[in-house]
Amino acid sequence: MENLFGQIEDLSRAKGIDPQVVIDALxxxxxxxxxxxxxxxxxxVADYNGHSGQVEVYAVKIVSELVANxxxxxxxxxxxxxxxxxxxxxxxxxxKKTDGLGRISAQLAKQVIFQKIREAERETIFNEFSDRIAExxxxxxxxxxxxxxxxxxxxxxxxxxxxxxxxxESFSPGDRIRVVIKNIEKAGRxxxxxxxxxxxxLVKTLFEQEVPEIYDGTVKIMACGRExxxxxxxxxxxxxxxxxxxxxxxxxxxxxxxxxxxxxxxEKIDIIEYxxxxxxxxxxxxxxxxxxxxxxxxxxxRHLEVIVEETQLSLAIGKKGQNVRLAAKLMSWRIDIxxxxxxxxxxxxxxxxxxxxGTPVSTLIEHxxxxxxxxxxxxxxxxxxxxxxxxxxxxxxxxxxxxxxMVEKIxxxxxxYFGQFESREPSLTxxxxxxxxxxPVVAQEPELVMADSTTETDAVMPGLPVEGVDxxxxxxxxxxxxxxxxxxxxxxxxxxxxxxxxPSDTESGETxxxxxxxxxxxxxxxxxxxxxxxxxxxxxx
Length: 541
Fold this sequence. Notes:
Structural class: alpha+beta
Number of helices: 18
Shape: elongated
Radius of gyration: 58 Å
Number of strands: 17
Oligomer: single chain
Largest sheet: 5 strands, mixed, barrel
């Protein structure tokens, strides 16, 4: 054991722990081995001698006036043989030999030393990394243990569990990756540091490293929702009106966000602007879907209802519900998405349910329907009179236990029920003040007295026969006129009678209707037509 102290220093330096921790572990190991070797009930302690570099074992006994347990107590007279000034209650140490502990005791001491050093190492790691949670550290994949990866993060090893790995990523020993420190475990076997590649903190920390505005606090990441390997949504807000939060995260030509996407192996990232209003935030969180309207169902329970068009429903829900899940994580609200048709059907169903609350079918008992028949209707699910009234006799006969005679009774009862409302229909006229309907007044048209056409002077075209006069009197027949050789149509005038009201004597107060003929003038006949008629008349004569 001459070179024991040098070995202790090397071990403490390699593990990064205090040398005193190694010495304490060594003393505990020697005590355990000595207790197993001596198999006595003595209280053993170990002490490290820095000068000789050895660990010495002592049996401790307490000075007592009356000795009850010789293995742990010693009398005053016996104690004064070793120490003359010994008094009651003092501890007397007796050195034990450690040269012959044996192989088994040495192996037990070795296990105890390793256990103590491992516990001390975990305590050191916990104190060192407890302040580094959410920090990104580079590491190297060291080995694979089942579904988990053991990575080397420098001074110690860390565990990357399967649940903290992206589904689209696979690594081999020797690969260099970047992970975020998620948790520190003190209990259990293996490395105490838990790292992650699927945590939301990884995305946040990457943005802090890539975007200076986030690093200096001008732009803040207010919320983040992530499904590792698929898609991430983050909500950002700027404390400076002149700084665009979304534009700062995207960068010129998307350079900033593209570097993060490459680090995440092609994972899609949606960046939206944060809003305190749940309606506005839900509209942005569900992008790229177009939202028709958002309704807050319960603000205390943080429950939203989102209505979209039928064409936008699948886009709002996303692949396997991914879009709405990320939006719910981003807002920490419960989101229900419905299409316009679904909402319309829901409203119609609610209205139908409200309208379905009609008169109970038991009311028909008062109108002559038996109780047994009412029970059969209730068993068939007909609880209201209105529903029975909407059914046909054939439908009623399909109900088990109801025949044609019962259908007739049901029809009479339903008719009696609705008939009472018709008999009670209120009258609009107060009693005793019946109004006699007046006969309609028909406006009489004034009688028209037509003047005798024979007394009037008809204006005719010269040379043409007068209407009503026999052809023998005019001197020529109608067939003497050659209408085929006439080039001009003849226009005959008709007598038009206009009614003219002539006020009569003011004493009688009557008005007489006088008809005065109005003669329309005919346009002058062309000279050649007149010459033809004159020529024919002369030839006739």
